[in-house]
Specification:
Its EC number is 1.11.1.6. This protein is α/β, with parallel strands linked by helices and about 750 residues long. The chain contains 17 helices and 21 strands. α16 links the parallel β20 and β21. α11 packs across α13. The structure holds CIS-heme D hydroxychlorin gamma-spirolactone 17R, 18S (HDE).
Length: about 750
Amino acid sequence: MDSSKPAEAVKNVVKTASGKIADALTPDVPGAPGSAPPPLEEPTTPHDPLPPKSEQGAPQTRTPTGAETGAPTIANGQQGAYLTTANGARLRDTDHSLKAGPRGPVLLQDHHLREKITHFDHERIPERVVHARGAGAHGVFTAYGTAEAVTRAGFLKKGRETDVFVRFSTVLGSRGSADTVRDTRGFATKFYTDEGTFDLVGNNIPVFFIQDAIKFPDIIHAGKPHPDREIPQAQSAHDTFWDFVSLHTEAQHHTIWNMSDRGIPRSYRTMEGFGVHTFRLVNEAGETVLAKFHWKPKLGVHSLTWEEAQLIGGIDPDFHRRDLYDAIEAGAYPEWELGIQVFPDTPEETFAGIDLLDPTKIVPEELAEVQPIGRLVLNRTPTNFFAETEQVAFHLGHLPPGIDVTNDPLLQGRLFSYVDTQLTRLGGPNFTQIPINRPHAAVNDMLRDGFHQHAVHAGVAPYRPNSLDGGNPFPAGDAEHAFVDVPVTVAQAPKVRANPASFDDHYSQVRLFWLSMSPVEKEHIIRAYTFELGKCYHQTIKERQLQSLANIDPVLCEQVATGLGLPAPQPTVPLPDVTPSPALSQVGREWPSDGRMVGIVVDPDGDLEGVDEVRRAVFSAGMVPLLIAPHGGMVGDLPVQRTFATGRSVEFDAVLLAGAPAPAPDALPARDAKAGTPAPATVDPRVLLLVEESWRHAKAIGAWGAGVTVLEQAGVAGTPGVVAAGSGAEALTAVQQLMAAHRVWERFPAAVA
Ligand code: HDE
């Protein structure tokens, strides 16, 4: 067999071993591990490594100093058909250690055993101290050219395309924690520009808990699990978190965002992103403006419900990373527009009375429009999680010419922290030479040696000035696009440990956020505070946080106090008269449904032809159909992705009922808790649960044919967002229209205005 054609070789083995079924079970539904279906028998004919899956990308093969090598990206991976040592010597056996006889002791001379075990012993590196849990993807950024007037950054010139790598993350949890916890999400983007790498290291929430970086260890120690019992994992619902934020009231603005639906995104694809700080942009003429960066998702901002988030935490803790990878594999590429709010660079560094250096404040979009400057498309998943997502190292100081920092004291501390943390995490100072971090620009930095040095520097004079290396490297001027720190005038002032007085307003924008929410979003916020504070042990901490809520809004405070069984305190600050910002609400607009998951309940005795048509129509509409059947394998000619026993409503954005399947043989309470107590129903109890949960989470539900009777048995027929249609096509069209608003909001009653 020709070993240069590995995919072909494996395909042949698969065909003969498992025939038609293997092909049919892995149709267009994303998520198959490996680039070819595995054969039943262990393959024994040597061939080269399988190619990566078609949707997988990898860092370009650049040298450590940024030069293109022209080698394909798979050259970074394993080579050849045969098992070798780390030094390339071929091995005959890796299953037995070298022993003094089959029953004898293992010999110290077994270099292969020692290499294998020693390397394994050192596979782990320290996880990130924050943002440990994350998922990344490759993509491309295309500039509109609309920022050319305000910045000379080359990658923002019209039509320029720049490779990017984006890493999304939660903040508090460990590397193995669940994706759907209530938390802030990181949104860090590495632009490999030809003028040096630009890292935009942002979050999905536009404000931060603290105004000065020196408080970062405090807020993180408060949010992380308690140091004695190390619980709770990846949660803010505990005493130390609420102890800190109720005492340190500048955290209240970020906290209300976390308690809102923004704290539990539906998907990374449905998150906004924010640079948070104000940056300074410089154009060709040396003129400056202040600016804030925003990412706007093509699919709009959507969130889970708290109940969904909790269920998914157990059912599919990898929900967000799976969603990201599956969407890319399905061709529903996640997309955002990058936008900027632009402000005049005045000595006061304020806009409409808002201090632009205070990272606990936003500038409402109604006051300063977000102007789109480019489009980000994520179109390739990583080939190797560790090499790419784990080893990627972001740093706020990775700035191209045209983008500079401001004196925001939070930003200033971050400029120190990111390089510092990589020294420990990535084991030395050469982390920019790791493939995912290699710049796509020529590097000539005079930094030398250190652990894991990959460059082979020539010359004898890594210093300036020199004559021995002919004077190289030379300083660049404006013509060569040098990064020049903007010569901002620093106002004369005493050296102090203090904040500007404007930083003392901790409540007005929290109130602004609250008043900008729709009634249903307010309900969710009330429930979130009640849940989180309800999890606190100490009454004093709840009372102290209620005081902060009283300073935000009396209705919010009263409602949460009622849930906690405590009296609502009076405000201690005057409640400001603020103008709401409708742009902050997620409700009321319509968005595309690309890459959404549609569950289709199938009855093996029902309309299978109709199911096949609907399944195809879901694919053509850019969504992913998952068939839910009484048993796995095939139903007729259709492959099943979920069974009544393995599926759960929270995986789906909408549900279609193609039949009324009778209780399956495994609908036994003894075997599947979801089967519940046997009921007189003629429909499988797991299907009824699916419909009830989908209804409770305000998802669109459609049915046709016998499926309509399920709606009746579940008691949801005729309610908003529940469609009894004449055909599968009709049901799908109606459900897709409903999905545009994300949820059937009328189903959430609201007690507050
Ligand atoms: Fe970070 N932050 N941060 N942060 N941050 C880190 O860097 C830090 C802050 C953000 O996917 C660490 O490589 C300080 C704000 C993201 O790899 C560390 C302060 C914002 C990520 C660090 C902040 C962020 C990090 C941990 C207070 C939004 C994940 C590992 C001044 C604008 C990046 C690492 C990734 C990661 C320090 C506050 C975003 C320790 C000192 C504000 C998205 O260096």
